[in-house]
Specification:
It contains 4 helices and 3 strands; from the N terminus they run αββααβα. It has 87 residues and is an alpha+beta fold. It has one domain. The longest helix is centred in the C-terminal third of the chain and has 8 residues. The chain is elongated, with a radius of gyration of 16 Å.
Amino acid sequence: MSTSDEVYLDSSEPEHDKTGMQHIGFAYDISKYDAADPDSPIIRRVCAFYGDLAKLTPIHQQRWKTYQVPEEGLQPHPAWWRQQMGG
């Protein structure tokens, strides 16, 4: 995930917003899922590694923190996870 060249070269864009992350994927939130209830939700969430988040500016770290949810019931998408783990 990164900004486009157009945005990066735009002098009106704040320098702290010219950032990106190497590894970003999605996860499934099954904390409210019930296999016996076909209408129970499986929610898709964005996921990232703490190491990549640590490389962001403090402003962006705080922004990402506003979207943080409890880890219980979260599972990274298996294909994304395999790709990230080299499998």
